[in-house]
């Protein structure tokens, strides 16, 4: 297929299991795993892609620290397998963003995403993330510098605006496309909403109306029905799943129709692979600490019957073999090991 044909594929009526393109790069389906700081590390992304996610995005990588060769930044940027490899950068200075994008490209990134959506105080306090939406001209200077610095596609993730009085996502998205951005993702909340209330899927439609490049819709997408509805109401080409994947890295693939919901034995096996992968990636001492939030999500989702003191004992254990054994036992005792989910339709 020619590059021109690939570029126009996003104009077709989207189905979750069909492919779409970013620049000239094909993405195998339309369900994307969101970048989540402290969550979408290499072990998590690897499992999500293996279980059918169309595209997985790294944790947010601070641009200045990456250029300064900080070890943690390189760990966050590391490829988890599967293509395209998409790295998200955060920063407030055009020079650092441009140089960081070059580092990403030199280290195998296929796509660089600019973070203009993170609502966390420690990020916006440095005038990065969604704080950039308060100054569109400055945001565009970062976008332009990043696009010019690399040959690979550059994308942007943003919110609807800073608050209800400044819904400027359509303006910034249109200018971003004019600057050469290859895709835009919009979370259907303002920064000031943080994660309260419900994402406004209809409001994303205003961004669709000003773009010709692919649009990804994000916010409160949990089920396949949610994914189909957000596509219908927003006019987006793909969906992005974030918090709904916590404790179930296979979930984007299920929503995409690429995997079955695992039974209890399957969940226990995935947890084991996830936990062991974190021990291998970080080392045992650091891995146990990094894994605790994931252990909590697995237990909350798949072993809700545990008494608080039992969950607490698992969460505070520093012995990996003990954590593995107790979590697997808790999952297997929560529902029949032979029960299986249906293929997402």
Helices and strands in order, then pairings?
Elements: H1 3-8, E1 20-22, E2 25-27, E3 31-33, H2 42-50, E4 55-62, H3 63-67, H4 71-77, E5 86-90, H5 94-106, E6 111-116, H6 121-124, H7 136-149, E7 154-159, H8 169-178, E8 183-187, H9 205-208, E9 215-218, H10 224-234, E10 238-241, H11 251-255, H12 264-282, H13 284-302, H14 308-316, H15 320-334
Parallel strand pairs: 3-4, 3-10, 4-5, 5-6, 6-7, 7-8, 8-9, 9-10
Antiparallel strand pairs: 1-2
**What's the domain count?**
2
Shape: globular
Give the overall pLDDT as a whole number.
89
Query: Strand order of the main beta sheet, please?
Result: 3-4-5-6-7-8-9-10
Biggest sheet architecture: 8 strands, parallel, barrel
Q: What is the C-alpha radius of gyration, as a whole number of Å?
A: 20 Å
- The helix content is 40-55%
Structural class: alpha/beta
Q: List unreliable stretches of 5+ residues.
A: 1-13, 119-127, 337-345
The CATH homologous superfamily of the largest domain is termed Aldolase class I
Number of strands: 10
CATH fold-type name of the largest domain: TIM Barrel
How do the helices and strands follow one another from N- to C-terminus?
Answer: HEEEHEHHEHEHHEHEHEHEHHHHH
So, CATH architecture of the largest domain? Alpha-Beta Barrel
Strand content: 5-15%
CATH class identity of the largest domain? Alpha Beta
Give the termini distance in whole angstroms.
Answer: 28 Å
Q: Total number of helical segments?
A: 15
């Amino acid at each position: 297929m020619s590059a021109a044909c690939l570029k126009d594929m996003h104009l077709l009526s989207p189905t979750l299991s069909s492919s779409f393109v970013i620049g000239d790069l094909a993405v195998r389906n339309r369900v994307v795993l969101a970048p989540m700081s402290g969550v979408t590390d290499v072990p998590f992304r690897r499992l999500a892609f293996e279980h059918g996610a169309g595209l997985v995005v790294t944790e947010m990588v601070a641009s200045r620290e990456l250029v300064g060769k900080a070890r943690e930044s390189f760990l966050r940027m590391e490829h988890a397998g599967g293509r395209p490899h998409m790295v998200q950068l955060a920063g407030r200075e055009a020079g650092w963003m441009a140089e960081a994008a070059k580092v990403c490209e030199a280290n195998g990134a296929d796509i660089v995403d600019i973070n203009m959506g993170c609502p966390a105080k420690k990020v916006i306090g440095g005038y990065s993330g969604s704080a950039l939406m308060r100054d569109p001209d400055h945001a565009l200077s970062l976008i332009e510098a990043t696009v010019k610095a690399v040959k690979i596609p550059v994308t942007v993730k943003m919110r609807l605006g800073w608050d209800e009085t400044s819904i400027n996502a359509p303006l910034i998205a249109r200018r971003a496309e004019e600057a050469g951005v290859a895709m835009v993702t919009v979370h259907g909340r303002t920064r000031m909403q943080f994660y309260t209330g419900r994402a406004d899927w209809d409001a994303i439609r205003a961004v669709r109306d000003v773009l010709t490049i692919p649009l990804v819709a994000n916010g409160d997408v949990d089920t396949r029905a949610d994914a189909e509805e957000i596509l219908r109401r927003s006019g987006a080409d793909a969906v992005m799943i974030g918090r709904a994947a916590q404790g179930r890295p296979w979930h984007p693939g299920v929503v995409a129709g690429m995997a079955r919901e695992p039974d209890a034995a399957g969940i226990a096996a995935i947890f084991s692979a996830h936990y062991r992968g974190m021990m291998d990636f970080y080392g045992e001492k650091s891995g146990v600490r990094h894994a605790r939030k994931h252990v909590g999500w697995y237990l909350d989702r798949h072993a809700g019957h545990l008494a608080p003191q039992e969950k607490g004992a698992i969460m505070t254990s520093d012995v990996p073999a003990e954590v593995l054994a107790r979590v697997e036992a808790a999952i297997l005792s929560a529902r029949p090991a032979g029960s299986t989910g249906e293929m997402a339709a």
